[in-house]
Design a protein that fits this description.
0% strand; elongated; 333 residues; 14 helices
């Protein structure tokens, strides 16, 4: 279920009203990216320390020595690689790719939520249009109609919802909780040899049959039976469309393209965002587009802005990964 926070920001005019939701852990960006962020910081500092502790000291020596010349060439190669990655990172249209992809995923997520049928709406129609009469038969038929709608709902969503699948691992578990009877389970099993597909629609067929019997017995007026049948058809169509979203996913090549583009972008940024210390002022100006000072050169050890980029872009990608399957086990499913 999506984490709700609207009640915490009811008064937007108060100072710092959003600070309470920014500090939440469940469903937050911190929970989604902290593992990747820690791994990224670790990889960054391994490369950074290798440059500062190994390459720089070993290259500042007597240039007449072959080993010193070799280490200096390694240092210059690293600085050239850093410049190459830094310049080419600007050519990757990551914002456009991620924006379009996340927009597609969020649209699919919202449409699937809107497709979920509400059994209480059908229950209101049955209560208003189905007259059970004075006997128990009509009253039990009305209860069975509502139960069959719920049964069809559960069987259909078991195929797409991990949580519902855990709650009802087999059809027999639906019998245990009273949503299905033993004789109805036997009817299901008889159809196993004839129908290999998911038989979630069978309870809706039973509902249609009971509506017809209700018209014959006088419990339902013939003109109003069409309203109930239309609602049954709407429930069937919504469940079928919901299952179609699970069968027809976002094209795998699109998901792979966006995911690989994001991670390769930050793989290149591991080198392109390194703060190097060129040996000469000319090299410093070439890399940073600014002249070096007479006595000091700016030296930034912590990659502040690249980590902000990582949090935004990878967090954006994690939003799509979370919502791509609305019936999974994430906090916002």
């Amino acid at each position: 279920m999506t984490v709700s926070y609207t009640g915490d920001v009811a008064n937007a005019s108060s100072f710092g009203c959003f600070s309470t939701i920014l500090c939440r852990w469940r469903g937050s960006i911190y929970k989604l990216i902290y593992k990747e962020l820690l791994a990224y910081i670790m990889a960054y500092f391994i490369i950074n320390l290798t440059y500062r502790v190994v390459l720089v000291p070993k290259s500042e020596c007597d240039m007449t020595l072959p080993s010193c010349q070799r280490w200096k060439s390694y240092r210059e190669l690293f600085e050239a690689l850093r410049l190459y990655c830094h310049e080419n990172l600007k050519t990757v249209p990551l914002t456009f790719m991620l924006g379009f992809y996340v927009s597609l995923i969020v649209t699919r997520w919202w449409k699937q939520y809107n497709l979920l049928p509400w059994p209480d709406s059908f229950g209101m129609l049955v209560t208003g249009l189905y007259n059970p009469g004075s006997g128990d038969k009509g009253r039990m038929m009305r209860r069975s109609i509502i139960r069959y709608i719920t049964l069809s709902y559960c069987i259909a969503l078991r195929t797409v919802s991990f949580r519902l699948k855990k709650r009802f691992p087999t059809i027999e578990h639906l019998v245990d909780v009273g949503i299905m009877r033993e004789d109805e389970l036997e009817e299901f099993r008889k159809l196993d040899g004839k129908i290999s597909a998911n038989k979630w629609f069978i309870p809706l067929v039973w509902v249609a049959k009971m509506i017809g019997e209700g018209v014959e017995d006088g419990h339902i007026l013939a003109p109003t039976a069409g309203i109930l049948m239309k609602e049954v058809g709407t429930i069937r169509q919504n469940l079928q469309t919901l299952l179609s979203y699970d069968w027809l996913s976002v094209p795998l090549v699109y998901t792979q393209t966006v995911t690989l583009a994001t991670y390769f972008y930050f793989l290149a940024a591991l080198f392109g965002a390194q703060w190097v210390i060129p040996a000469t002022k000319d090299a410093y100006q070439k890399i940073y587009k600014t002249p070096a000072g007479e006595f000091t050169k700016l030296d930034l050890f912590f990659p502040f802005f690249v980590l902000i980029q990582f949090a935004f872009y990878v967090g954006w990608l994690k939003v799509a990964e979370t919502l791509i399957n609305p019936f999974g086990e994430d906090d916002d499913d």
